[in-house]
């Protein structure tokens, strides 16, 4: 499904980072709190893939 590609779950994040699922939930919680303070709606246990990449890896979307 398309929405699965847009969001990262704790299980996926734990696998990506080579850490525990519990730690992944903590990271998702922090990122979702940041998004909430900016006025965005969030989904518990999931974080938008683009926001995760921007915050963790400094990846910015490049437009031509």
Content-based structural category: mainly alpha
pLDDT averaged residue by residue: 88
Instruction: Report the span from N to C terminus.
Output: 27 Å
Tally of separate domains: 1
Radius of gyration: 12 Å
Percentage of residues assigned to helices: 55-70%
Helix run count: 4
| Helix/strand order | HEHHEH
Protein name: ICEBs1 excisionase
Kindly describe this structure.
The chain has 64 residues and is mainly α. It has one domain. It has 4 helices and 2 strands. Strands 1-2 form a two-stranded antiparallel sheet. Helix 2 crosses helix 3. The longest helix has 17 residues. It is globular and about 30 Å long. It starts with a helix and ends in a 7-residue tail after the last helix. The mean pLDDT is 88. This is ICEBs1 excisionase.
What distinguishing features does this structure have?
single chain; 64 residues; mainly alpha; two-stranded antiparallel ribbon; 4 helices; globular
């Amino acid at each position: 499904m398309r929405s699965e590609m847009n969001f990262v779950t704790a299980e996926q994040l734990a696998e990506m980072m080579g850490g525990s699922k519990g730690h992944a939930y903590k990271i998702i919680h922090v990122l979702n709190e940041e998004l909430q303070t900016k006025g965005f709606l969030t989904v518990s246990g999931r974080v938008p893939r683009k926001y995760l990449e921007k915050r963790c890896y400094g990846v910015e979307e490049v437009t031509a």
